[in-house]
Q: What sequence folds into this?
């Protein structure tokens, strides 16, 4: 008889290991912890990241101009230097033009201060007659102001010094970063390709080109919008006879780099000064009306015509990005929030897995039901008028 089989000597068949399923709570907890660490690192490294991000935006804006110089036979290094010189001349022209207006405004500050004190006294007298509130004397007002300045003067001085040193440091770093990014752009692209397989490099290249297109459309369009808005604001304020109309028009248009919030700040200051200067609430309301009308034109006609649908971020996502950018990096974060969200949308749209999140950030026009039959929509009266003015009707 054959011996009974020994189970120890028999070959063992490999069994697949049991799959450990992770609880969704644990998965999302790790995601939240990772996101919190990312926000902490971004906040702590703001002195490094902010100049780098601004440099990337300007490098993408200058890239077509740099390529144009290179196609004309100019070496890459000299083409980059020429682009940086043109950028410096542009900013110098803006600073000189804005500074001349600021000098005129500064010369009128003593008169404006006297009128502001008179307006304050008139308001106190009205409040005393109407509500019986005891008015504050000029000496008490000065003492209160001086005490407040003494209490917070050291804080303001430290903040001013830190801000000034940070601005000077950024002004030195940004041109260096721009030069390096433009000089080593081919090397950076090859570095990016080493992370993906050859069959996916076309998709990565397409995504990078889309990011470049979005950033260029946003920045170049923003510069054009600033010029047009400045002209429209100046025309409206000059028609109302507002003092320093050109200064306030340029000031409000520059603040347009901060969507929704910048225009409110730019309209409030000239309205208050007009109220103090003339004492007429109607004139101040008319000033606000001019800015609101220009903002309506900018949001509904000017910006869509210039940037088109390339930077299609819905207002809710834009407002949330502004709030988060302000909490993370302050005013520079508010300026960078919209282009960064636009870049994030392009990256999210590039993958089927993350495409729904890109759809969430997109404009509401992208959410129309694709199963509906296309309808022929005729433009409204204002849009037809605008198209005729541009010669596109």
A:
């Amino acid at each position: 008889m054959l011996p009974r089989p020994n189970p120890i000597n028999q070959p063992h068949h490999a069994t697949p290991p049991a799959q450990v399923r992770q609880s969704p709570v644990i998965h999302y907890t790790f995601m939240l912890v990772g996101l919190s660490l990312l926000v902490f690192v971004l906040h702590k490294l703001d002195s490094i990241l902010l100049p780098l991000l601004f440099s990337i935006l300007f490098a993408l804006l200058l890239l077509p101009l740099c390529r144009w110089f290179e196609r004309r036979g100019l070496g890459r290094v000299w083409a980059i230097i020429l682009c940086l010189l043109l950028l410096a001349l542009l900013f110098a022209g803006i600073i000189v033009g804005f500074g001349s207006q600021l000098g005129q405004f500064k010369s009128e500050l003593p008169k404006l201060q006297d009128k502001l004190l008179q307006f304050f006294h008139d308001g106190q007298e009205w409040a005393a007659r109407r509500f019986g509130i005891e008015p504050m004397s000029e000496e008490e007002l000065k003492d209160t102001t001086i005490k407040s300045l003494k209490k917070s003067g050291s804080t303001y001085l430290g903040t001013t010094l830190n801000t000034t040193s940070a601005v000077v440091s950024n002004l030195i770093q940004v041109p260096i970063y721009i030069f390096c990014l433009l000089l080593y752009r081919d090397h950076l692209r090859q570095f990016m390709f080493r992370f993906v397989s050859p069959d996916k490099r076309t998709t990565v290249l397409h995504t990078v080109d889309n990011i470049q297109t979005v950033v260029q459309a946003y920045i170049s369009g923003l510069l054009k919008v600033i010029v047009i808005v400045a002209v429209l604001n100046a025309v409206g304020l000059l028609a109302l006879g507002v003092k320093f109309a050109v200064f306030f028009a340029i000031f409000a248009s520059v603040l347009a780099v901060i969507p929704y919030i910048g225009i409110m700040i730019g309209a409030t200051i000239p309205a208050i000064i007009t109220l103090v200067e003339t004492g007429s609430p109607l004139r101040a309301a008319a000033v606000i009306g001019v800015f609101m009308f220009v903002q309506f034109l900018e949001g509904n006609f000017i910006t869509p015509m210039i940037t088109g649908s390339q930077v299609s971020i819905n207002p809710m996502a834009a407002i949330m990005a502004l709030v988060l950018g302000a909490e993370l990096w302050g005013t520079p974060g508010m300026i960078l929030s919209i282009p960064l969200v636009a870049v994030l949308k392009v990256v999210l749209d590039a993958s089927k897995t993350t495409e729904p999140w890109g759809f969430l950030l997109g404009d509401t026009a992208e959410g129309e039901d694709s199963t509906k039959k296309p309808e022929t929509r005729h433009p409204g009266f204002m849009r037809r008028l605008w198209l005729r003015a541009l010669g596109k009707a």
In short: The longest helix spans residues 138-183. The radius of gyration is 29 Å. The chain has 14 helices and no strands.
